[in-house]
Amino acid sequence: MERFIRLSGRAAAMPAANIDTDVIMPKAYLKGIDRSGLAIGLFHDLRFDEDGAVRRDFILNRADMAETRFLIVGPNFGCGSSREHAVWGMLQYGIRGIIGSSYGAIFADNAANNGLLLLSLPTTEIAALTAELDEGAGDMTVDLETQRIEMGGYAAGFDIDPATRQALMLGLDRIGETLRHAERIRAFEKAYLGRKPWLMGADSDEHET
Amino acid sequence: MSAPKTLYDKIVDDHRILSFGESGGAGERLLLYIDRTVLNEYTSPQAFSGLRAAGRAAWRPAASLGVVDHVNSTNPDRAAGELDDGARRQIEYLGENGRDFGIEIFDLFDPRQGIEHVVMPELGLVLPGMVIAAGDSHSTTYGAFGVVGFGIGTSDIEHLLATQTLVYRRLKTMRITIDGTLAPGVTAKDLIMDVIRRIGADGATGHAVEFAGQAIDALGVEARMTICNMAVECGARVALMAPDDKVVDYISGCPRAPSTEMLALARADWRTLRSDPGARFDKEVAFDAIDIPPMVSWGTSPDQSLAITGAVPDPTDLPVGRRADAIRAMAYMDLAPHTPLQDIAIDRAFIGSCTNARLTDLRDAARILKGRRVAPGVRAMISPGSSGVRRAAEAEGIDRIFIDAGFEWRRSGCSLCLAMNDDSLAPGERCASSTNRNFEGRQGIGGRTHLMSPAMVAAAAVTGRLADVRVLAAEDIS
Question: Are the Cβ atoms of B420 and A35 closer than 8 angstroms?
Fold first, then answer.
């Protein structure tokens, strides 16, 4: 997982509410068994029409948005399906951070697990950032170390969950971290299943198939 | 005496291995033990590849079950069903992973195959007090059993398989109380669609939602599953209902339910699975069931819905913040403001999905279809929630009612709910659908989805337009 410490780049606004993961990564791109080849799928049906022609009016297709690194989004971004392909596609396309007011919860977890930065700001801050874009602001800079965001005339601090921030900055092996507690897990499991013996009965290996 | 606790907090406390930092309260970061998961062929492959690459085993293989459901054809002839190369490879890889990691897999030809959230409860694998996390957002379904069920992405599937745990953040709690009695012709689907309409697509975001009240208590277990299933469409990460005797009765008839002896032991534990009197929720809302009408969606977000007796809204009547989205949705749905919903003609009708394709759902639809025919020009399909549901329906003769009415009696799978297989809408086609999401392109690029209950789909199928099921039911009585 690529670390995120400080990054500058183009930001694009997608202000619609409830942009779901079906729209972010349509079903045609969910048939793989690996994580590759998803950049083309990102917002595919917004970027291209039914004949595969580029939709010139879509924000990411504008010439000045070719190197977009940040999205400024509307409420409840990433709601719907759990498909992590939506986050993989973002990163493969080059999007490294999303700034919005609220997110679908599974999408937010998937983002944190893959090093895609999600910032949750009050709607007034989102409006201020969008206004800067409208006035032709240049690149956005997000600094995770100092917890500052800057673009054009906008500069402000932001809050972020400390554990998520640390994971983004260090890029930890999450499973390896948890397995350091393997003995605790094993002891818990033994005690837990011991006090609820009916749970083991449902295990599939105790039944003929 | 300790402070009164919510049902959600009781179950989380019962599964907490350790806390990272401060313990207790919403936002607590903890290591959570997971009882069980179910894996499908499209969100699990990269998790297994990750385990393979790191040389890791599954922690407790017997706690997992794999089911093919998302990409398969629903062709009545299983062997003849169309599979594209990607789908075929995903199904094969699920089988390989089952063999290599010791996990039981129900493949396409298994008599127990079906939609994961239908198969798990019908086998008796979903037991009150459990935590079940799975790679599908509709894992909230299990809340009907008093289970903390929630969807996770593929990285977390890998973490769960390797450790039987998740690094978890305790949610805020919300209680939705619905007292009173549902009016005749109004179902659990209408109830949850009305909740979503009232509180919005993000009304429960970040919360564990407990459903309570007389209207919930009066529902059967399958109807409760419909509500918990679709609660994710208002942002609920977890949906919960306190388990009662109906739940225990439901479980006791299932093939993998605990023995009678074990059930007796479990029953005492399950009685504690309710929020204590005086437990505090971060958010509370309450409705009266009698106010809930039969619902249909008109837009492209599940909160864009109305009573069937209504008309497409005028954007200028909506709150300012919702107008642009409504205008966009109307353009996609090709609907003009003020159009009566019952004037909207349909091309397709679909009964299926983890939301509404259990035996009671099929019975509800069959009651309306009996003695009627699908309207000319409408293609109607039913995909039972599992192969088991399909057999049970055939044993009751329900299949005949669907077939005689002109429905295609399909095999089980997620099918047209998300159209990952060859069941999809053509651009511009309009579908009355018993599914859970009316997102743009969900049922096919350019396809238009109207969500509703299975009985309302049946009513629309025979009328050729969106229709009020109560009118047809009244005809049957007179």
Answer: no
Question: How many C-beta neighbours within 10 Å does residue B290 have?
Answer: 13
What is the largest distance, in Å, between two alpha-carbon atoms of chain A? 68
| Confidence at residue B81, expressed as pLDDT on a 0 to 100 scale | 86
What would the pLDDT profile of B143-185 be if each residue is shown by its tens digit? Answer: 999 999 999 999 999 999 999 999 999 999 999 999 999 999 9
Neighbours of B392 (CB within 10 A): 16
Is the ipTM beyond the 0.90 threshold? yes
C-beta atoms of B153 and A26 within 8 A? no
pLDDT in tens, B141-152: 999 999 999 999
DSSP notation for B358-398:
SHHHHHHHHHHHTT--PPTT-EEEE--SBHHHHHHHHHHTH
* Rounded Cα distance, B153 and B141, in Å: 17
Query: Domain of B447?
Result: 295-477
CB B275 within 8 A of CB B12: no
Residues B231 and B327 in one domain: no
* Both tokens assigned to B14: 């019962």
Beta-bridged to residue B430, according to DSSP, are B448
- CA A200/CA B243 separation, integer angstroms: 20
Domain parsing of chain A, residue ranges: 6-172, 173-209
pTM: 0.97
Say if residue B300 is in the same domain as residue B288: no
CA distance B210 to B201: 17
Q: In DSSP terms, which residues pair with A99 in a beta bridge? A: A72, A119
Give the integer Cα–Cα distance in Å for B413 and B41.
Answer: 12
Query: How far is it, in rounded angstroms, from Cα A103 to Cα A81?
Result: 12
Phi (first) and psi of residue A201, to 5 degrees = -60, -25
Phi, psi dihedrals of residue A141, rounded to the nearest 5°: -120, 125
User: How would you classify the pairing of strands B305-307 and B295-297?
Assistant: antiparallel
Class of domain A6-172: alpha beta
B330 and B269 part of one domain: no
Q: In the sheet where B407-409 sits, what is the strand order?
A: B407-409, B379-382, B348-351, B430-433, B448-451
Task: Give the A:B interface size as CB pairs under 8 Å.
Answer: 199
Q: Are B143 and B231 in contact (CB under 8 A)?
A: yes
Cβ–Cβ gap A18/B15 under 8 Å:
no
**B42 vs A contacts (CB less than 8 Å):** 30-31, 83
Cα separation, B238 vs B145, whole angstroms: 12
As a whole number of angstroms, the longest Cα–Cα distance in chain B is 68
Q: Do A76 and B167 touch (CB under 8 A)?
A: no
Instruction: Say how far apart CA B186 and CA B5 lie, in whole Å.
Output: 33
Candidates B85, B232, B233: best to mutate against A (most CBs of A within 10 A) is B232
Are the CB atoms for A16 and A58 separated by under 8 Å?
no
Here the tokens at position A206 are: 């105790």
8 Å CB contact between B173 and B152: no
CB contacts under 8 A, B 66-85 vs A, are 71, 84-85
